Amino acid sequence: MHRKVLKQDSEEEAAFLLSMSDGLSQLNFSALNSVTGLDMLSEAISGLFVNCWATYAKRITVTSCSKEWWNNECRTALETYRQTGEQSDWSSFRSTTR
Questions:
Q1: Which domain holds residue 37?
Q2: 63 Rama sector, left if φ>0, alpha if ψ -120 to 50, beta otherwise
Q3: Residues 46, 93: one domain?
Q4: What are the DSSP calls for the chain, one per residue?
Q5: Total count of domains within the chain
Q6: Rounded to whole angstroms, what are the CA distances from 34 to 25, 39, 43, 95?
């Protein structure tokens, strides 16, 4: 299964938000006095979102083994264990990942 994501606080997220903001500021809001004008504006906003998302979101593969819980603390604990090979570091790693 695939999905597209923007990592929180990433450069891609910042660029996406800036692009959306710039795009929204350039839209013509003067034609909102008719249903047709509202439809055109909603289509423009939708298209802007789709284009920005396609440009900045990253495609990932989600599997049953995907590790959304894995973080820098887990990574550091594992690296420490791999460097030392100590049982205490293994225990520390295991408790970090639980």
A1: 1-66
A2: beta
A3: no
A4: -EEEE--TTSHHHHHHHHHHHHHHHTS--TTTTSHHHHHHHHHHHHHHHHHHHHHHPEEEE--TT--TT--HHHHHHHHHHHHH--HHHHHHHHHHT-
A5: 2
A6: 20, 9, 14, 61
Closest to 61 (Cα-Cα) out of 5, 16, 7: 5
Cross-strand pairs, 59: 4
Q: Which residue has the tokens 């995907």?
A: 66
- Whether residue 42 is found in the same domain as residue 72: no
Here the tokens at position 81 are: 């264990």
Residue type, 60: I
Do residues 93 and 52 both lie within one domain?
no
Query: pTM of the predicted model, to two decimals?
Result: 0.61
pLDDT in tens, 20-72: 999 999 998 888 899 999 999 999 999 999 999 999 999 888 765 566 677 88
